[in-house]
Amino acid sequence: MTVILGRRFGFTDRTLCMLMSTIKGTMALPFIGTNFTYEVILSDEIGTLWWHAHSDWTRGSVHGAFVILPAENETYPFPTPDADQTIILQSWYNRDYKELIDEATSNGTAVASADAYAINGHLGDTYACANETLFRMQVDYQKTYLLRIINAAMNEQKFFAIANHSLTVVAQDASYVQMFTNDYIMISPGQTMDVLVIANQNMGQYYMATRPFSDSGAPPRNNITRGVFQYTNSVGGLNASLVTLPAMTDLDAAANFTRRIKNSNVTQNPPMKVPMDIDRRVYIAIASNNLPCDNCPILPTRLAASLNNVSFDFPQIDILQAYYNRSISGVFTEDFPLQPPEFYNFTGDLTGLNPNADLGTKAIVLNYGEAVEIVLQTTSTGPAGSHPIHLHGFSFYWVGTGSGNFNNVTDPSSYNLVDPPLINTVHVPLRGWVAVRFFATNPGVWFMHCHFERHSSWGMDTVFIVKNGTTVDTSILPPPASGMPRCSGT
Predict the structure, then answer these.
(1) Could you tell me the residue ranges of all domains in the chain?
(2) With contact defined as beta carbons under 8 Å apart, do 431 and 437 qualify?
(3) Per 3-state DSSP, what percentage of the chain is helix, strand, and coil (rounded to 5)?
(4) Is the pTM of this model over 0.90?
(5) Whole-number mean pLDDT of the chain?
(6) Contact indicator for 399, 352 with CB cutoff of 8 Å
(7) Domain 280-474 has CATH 2.60.120.380
(8) Residue 68: how many CA atoms within 13 Å on its side-chain side?
(9) What's the confidence (pLDDT) of residue 5?
């Protein structure tokens, strides 16, 4: 289901769905047999976002697009497209999502890779399926189309391209970027990207295609899924349509693409508010780990993941509910470490390093209005690899990236404080780091997690609690009068 929204102005960040979720994050669904009404008020977002489930692995099939159109009397900061098309890149499993994650959790092992990939639910013509389907996008010669591309895949970053056609990137995560043209895009799970394409080639049928990008020691299946970019009244087969995608392990292709994304200084974007003087710094090491497991049938340990060596323990009572009702105790603590408990060569040889982590439900507490910097550092633990990290409730400025171990003395001099992109999901590279900044002006309880679903399930998560300001307008909204939807057993 695609939700079409008109853009509205004049609202502060705190109005972004303060009930249980945020349009910059995800929408929680009520328990079976109940209903719940969400109020979503847009402030600065423009372009494309998406909604998805966040219970177990249900987001694999429960998701859709938010299309945010320009406000009345507002134009696009580029030639108005003749039409637009939502393109959702998906994982395809031949088994039930819940069965897969429950089995892996019970055994303490990895979840099987996706059996295939899909474009808008279509597997295309590269799989030996009894009922092969191709997603077809019909276009008219010389018309311009705005592709609203969403990576809804469970554990795969994706390359995407259209044969013989150039792609012009104009927005990411509902914020306009400086336009640039490329033969392909690289998009991480959780990200959205708005792309212009002009149907200016010889009339015919051209493949569009996607394949995973991976720099991990535990790569996904290297399958290509295809759809068709089909000119109206075209005849014949898919001639002149071979699509060239980067190799799955092409690190340079991924890095060369992501480094071109810059904030656009157009009136349709919010004014740049990059924090210059920082009140709170958080340095987070991202790791794959093991935890003891007495009941696992295969090994005495189970796979885990952590942020600053804390593997997130999902509570039975929602943290937001406990935060609203202070009489509920024991749900979470406010002592998430603001730096790694142990410093080592994060991106080097980790032979002999203790692979275990601590299990806990620990939150980071921020004062309203604080200028926050988070440095996210990948490590070489486990199969290593990059991570798409997403923070609910906020868009943040991606101000820096680099390879190796972050140096807090020299690396900030390389920050881009002029035109950093305003995004909500950031690609943290293999054996490297990124730095993001934002103002904590959205009071509430906000989940931060890796958008590789297997990593989030293993504990690569934490929670930010932004305290109230001094006024009603800078405070969290009260709970719904009708009460929160209740999950079974709570």
Answers:
(1) 280-474
(2) no
(3) 10, 35, 55
(4) yes
(5) 89
(6) no
(7) no
(8) 28
(9) 56
